[in-house]
Amino acid sequence: MTAHPSPTTTLLRPRFAPFSIPLTGVVPPVCTPLTPEREVDVPSLIRLVDHLVDGGVDGLFVLGSTSEAAYLTDAQRRLVVETVTGHVAGRLPVLAGAIDMTTPRVLDHVRDVTAAGADAVVVTAPFYTRTHPVEIARHYRVIATRSPVPVFAYDLPVSVHTKLSAELVLELAADGVLAGLKDSSGDLGSFRSVVTGARSHPDITGFTLLTGSEVVVDSALALGADGAVPGLGNVDPVGYVRLFRLCRDGDWERARAEQERLCALFRMVDVGDAARMGGSSSALGAFKAALYLRGVIDCPATAEPQVPLSEGEVELVGKYLAGAGLL
């Protein structure tokens, strides 16, 4: 990581990239296929991108939680972004996570992913040490002034142990610091406050509001969200695209039925035995096992030190796929 000079006291408004804002539709957080040796499996990653693009998605988000970004080396992170942006070749916007503990480290990731072709960066609050809302706001302001592309806030309290308040998000949106929000907090009430506030604020225009929850996409869209970033969208992109279009067209009865089908499929994340693995191992293992069973990727390996699914657990994933009509 390289050092950066101290920020100046005057923080300028960021420059936005050319892709259309607000970004709408389904923007899946792309899994990172790995080889048995835990290196990035580039051919499988390209097939996964094709699987998503063919499914009709509206954008791609790499280096998020579902991408196992926290487990990847800096070189692997850059390889993922270069592979995806190079293969997509401008057909869809590519958002990339620039996720790390402190502002200088995030700035290094911003430099790397934008050099690799990312159209926007997605940034959490600082973590490891506890930070005050004023410090979180400064974190985003400094990053936005130095990023050549739009900055999206990533509300992920389960991992960074900080909940972004609606007030803070709206303040940064009104000041032009943030281009959007990916809300993975699971707090639909707080998300509603941001949606309502953004839609009524005279200084907020073109602000993208995306839910990161697989199971309440229809509810979030009914509240006024612009789209969704569902990890399960790796497995069934067509289903989430269909759900988005039904909601967009106001066909709420059919949308509810599609959401319920996806909720049933999402139960695959619990196939792992909680006595021997954590929730991340189970969920990411299930997504990758599903992609492996569907013939999209060559190996369902997850990054160390996550525990792999057993043969029996992979069979259970197959039953969920069959029940959803995907095998």
TrEMBL record:
Example GO molecular function: 4-hydroxy-tetrahydrodipicolinate synthase activity
Protein family (similarity comment): Belongs to the DapA family.
BP terms from Gene Ontology: small molecule metabolic process
UniProtKB keywords: Lyase, Schiff base
Positions contributing to pyruvate binding: 66, 229
Cell membrane recorded as keyword: no
Protein species of origin: Streptomyces albiflavescens
Record's keyword annotation contains Lyase: yes
Gene3D superfamilies on file: Aldolase class I
The protein's name in its UniProt record: Dihydrodipicolinate synthase family protein
Active-site feature positions: 154 (proton donor/acceptor), 182 (schiff-base intermediate with substrate)
